[in-house]
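Handout, section B. The chain below has 188 residues.
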Amino acid sequence: MRITGGQARGIQLRLPVRGEIRPATDYLREAVFSSLGAFVDQASVLDLFAGTGAYGLEAMSRGASKVQLIEKNPAAIAAIRTNIVAVAKACGQHTLPAEVTTSDALRWAPLRGARYDLIFCDPPWELWKNEAILLVERLATWTTGVDARIILEAPGEFTVPIPDGWQLHRHLAKGKNQPAASILRPIG
């Protein structure tokens, strides 16, 4: 698993030594970021269910201004912190504007007034069956508005819910039994 583009391209990401983490594939992340293009530059990013931090750190490598990573697994948090150091070094920086928050992403909420241009959400797949619509509706309230994007990673055969006022911008899938990403954007 590696960073697929930007200043830290090729940097290997550390995986947690234990825990049930299903990292986003390099192929899917590269497709997502190719679809987002220059939209990432200077974006404020939220990475929920961060796992290795791959989505958020990929965004930093490609020019995002700041990232907040939410994860509850202690082994994953240790891996994220190691990955932040590696990406910062590859970007020629001592540190990155990346904040790691230890929390259950289903219960976490941003500080009052905090808004994000890009939200990546890659939860354990079993959550899509029971809590998907509530989760996606919450995400929509945390965005900056008409220029925001929400990226949802889900099983390829699952149709992600789209909240009111939002539309499917692009659906990226390799196959039915593979992970897929849906990029949502506000209508208008």
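Note. Strands lie at 44-48, 66-71, 98-102, 118-121, 149-155, 166-173, 179-186. Compare this with the example in section A.
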